Amino acid sequence: MASEVQPDMVSNEEMNGSSNLMDFLDEPLPDVGTYEDFHTIDWLREKSRDTDRHRKITHKSKESIWEFIKSLLDAWSGWVVMLLIGLLAGTLAGVIDLAVDWMTDLKEGVCLSAFWYSHEQCCWTSNETTFDDRDKCPQWQKWSELMMGRAEGAGAYLLNYFLYVSWALSFSFLAVSLVRVFAPYACGSGIPEIKTILSGFIIRGYL
What we know:
about 65% helix, mainly alpha, 2 strands
């Protein structure tokens, strides 16, 4: 009997612990407005609450130096967040641009010296090419050259075509899988949803 009761007690404790965690996560944060999903933000109420918050911060800033420093941090927090977002967006844009070039050229061939180089980057590092022949370097080889030892002929053409289509289908399947598993909302352009969210409509889990 004890062995039968103990698992039930453990499962009940686990359920209570998980429910307590969910209740804690659902509790509203202080000075932060919370809304249900698919509801619209009350801008007048949020403006009033933000005005009260700034009034409290300004009043406390006169009490001590530490509170004054905290008020300065609060005043500059918006600019700091925008700066970090700009730097992160620029970094991600650069990484995406390099990845797109590499994945595009990977459908045609590979760089033998460093497989993560695109065609252009691979020939940049070569000392055996001139500016006029910057797209032709021994380090970059098409798939037919790598597998068959030649770049011309019907067999080489068919192999390059087959691998080009295979890589394209693989990348498409990878993109679809990532969207389906991690970000179902990303199946469309997202522009109408972003406009809706910026206007104050709550769509949880979209961003």
